[in-house]
Amino acid sequence: MSKVLVSRPLSLSPQRFTKRTARMGFLAIKQEHAEIEPFMSACGSTWDDLVRAGLLRSKRARSTAELPDHEPTRKGRSLFHREKDYDILMVKKGMGLAIVDAVRAARPVPNRSLRAAPPSPFTTRPATLPAPQLRP
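and the corresponding structure tokens:
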């Protein structure tokens, strides 16, 4: 016998958002979790940075702009608090530094193979490299 998954309809009523906001306030005050958007803004990271670090993945279901469209990966479950009933995703207490470290470690390294000419001490314009000389 196969299981049939029935999802409940997503109601975006004002009461739902009131309950969600109250729950987020409770989590922030009682459990000292941080809201993810202000945290990312303060750290200078984006949703893409968290996905690249392997902490979050995009949800399969379509979402709205008011609700998060990401969920924690196995690696991110210890760092984020998620409540499906309220569509809440928050940073757990004391996990901010671990998230920042993971994001920094996953950022692409700039290409250092191209060397720039050293700056000239006599001008504010960057120095130019001499043209290569061809051998006869």
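(Above: one complete record from the training split.) Confidence is low (pLDDT under 50) at residues 1-9.
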